Amino acid sequence: MAPHTEQLTRPAVRLEGLTRSFEGRTVLDGVDLEIPAGQFVALLGHSGSGKSTLLRAVAGLDHEVTGSGRLTAPERVSVVFQDSRLLPWRRILPNVLLGLDGKDAEQRGRAALAEVGLAGRERAWPSELSGGEAQRAALARSLVREPELLLADEPFGALDALTRIRMHALLRELWKRHRPSVLLVTHDVDEAIVLADRVLVLEHGRIGLDLTIDRPHPRSYRDPLLSAYRTELLGALGVVEDTD
Amino acid sequence: MTAVTTTTVTAAPAAAPDERPRTRRSGLSPGRRLPAARLAGPLLVLALWAAASAAGRLDPAAVPAPWTVLRTGVHLWTDGTLAGDIATSLRRAGYGFAIGLTAGVVLALASGLSRAGEALIDGTVQLNRAIPTLGLIPLFILWLGIGETFKIAIIAIVVYIPIYLNTHAALAGIDHRFVELAEVQGLSRARFVREVVVPGALPGFFVGLRLGVTGSWLGLVVLEQINATSGLGYLMFQATNYGQSDVILVGLVVYGIFGLVSDSVVRLVERRVLSWRRTLSS
């Protein structure tokens, strides 16, 4: 535990006045944000609120976007996309090892696949996997690089509800074991509440709400104490819940 | 079977839909392929031809009987004429195809992977493509003489164009999401090209390859029939002068075998290399 507490003292991600705009429309308007090492953060927002823009900025994927501000991110960053983005012409293990070198790479790849419950599927083609399996393979691909920061852009958005619940448990489990900082972009308030220790709401190009969820894990979707957080987050998103 | 089922459903939509759900073919996939189904059509044509010849309904001077063609073929083979002509033709097509294949792939890679290459090459090839290659024959005869070089050059041009076009399109059309992925995974440019771009472009390359193979035979036929003193086309052209329709048919059969075998080889390689693809034809 000791190293973790030590890690928490320095931020993994720091954004200072981060601004990004597309064709004159300002999407991020001076975002200030610090994510301590090892923290699990969820980022909520309407579609078009700039959550993905923020994630892509942190991932370094926004080459041709105009913007300013300071951005510090760790060296080892992994990204999980909404689609699994497995290369269809590579079997699962080589997909997981994409960009990885070294003698023990294969060993690590197999271990990562076992961790996400895909042991034995190393030689399957991506087209043979279900949506949930493909996304688990994508998780393995990002974990095998031992990231200090894991960026996830609506990683479960395309999965069915049951698979999503299972993936939530898996992601939380993996986070507990490896302790990367996590920035999970989602539009699903419940997903954010169940998974993250801190939930941010992005509105008008800034962090509009910064909420620490102080409930032990594993959390249940039915936990009544979480509903206060839900109401607050939905309020920040401009949704008024019916109260009966 | 299917047709009947379909009509019943459309004509009487009220009929119980799940009466025989198991007997219906599933989905929109054309279903399982019959063994050796590809041969059924050609065999039927052959049977009709033989029957018509046997019944005396075909003029033997215009369309000789299958067995006459076979006998002529065996005769031409045993006296060495056919073997020599086939070798000549195969050499032309082979050299031309190999050069065209290499040029198509190299140019497509140069043009697809660098902006400078694209600026220099793509427009030039598009221009070349606009001129029907067989129209270049007179010019090439002037430049290269009427020997083998000019024939190989023309075949190479006929072959390289479809290979270039399809490979280049596939290289240029690589999915942007995979480019992002490669960046995120920290791939070097060389590895990105080797592990993402090239395998992603292979399906397009194979489309071009098959067109190129077909093109090489087409070029060969035209060249041999108008500007040759040896080869299969020349044999057939000579036969026209003597009214030997059986010899012409032997030539056509050999051309057909060339085409069929080469296309099968390409398909086989394609299936091996692109085994990750699951399409309608698998």
TrEMBL record, chain A:
GO terms for molecular function: ATP binding; ATP hydrolysis activity. Keywords: ATP-binding, Cell membrane, Membrane, Nucleotide-binding, Translocase, Transport. It comes from the Bacteria. Pfam families: ABC_tran. Residues 13-229 form the ABC transporter domain. PROSITE patterns: ABC_TRANSPORTER_1, ABC_TRANSPORTER_2. PANTHER family: ALIPHATIC SULFONATES IMPORT ATP-BINDING PROTEIN SSUB, TAURINE IMPORT ATP-BINDING PROTEIN-RELATED. This is Sulfonate ABC transporter ATP-binding protein. It comes from Streptomyces longwoodensis.
UniProtKB/TrEMBL annotation, chain B:
The keyword Heme does not apply. It is found in: Cell membrane. Residues 1-33 are annotated as: Disordered. It comes from the Bacteria. Residues 1-16 have a biased composition (Low complexity). It is a multi-pass membrane protein. The chain crosses the membrane at residues 39-58, 95-114, 126-146, 152-171, 192-213, 247-269. Keywords: Cell membrane, Membrane, Transmembrane, Transmembrane helix, Transport. Belongs to the binding-protein-dependent transport system permease family. This is ABC transporter permease. The lineage of its organism: Bacteria, Bacillati, Actinomycetota, Actinomycetes, Kitasatosporales.
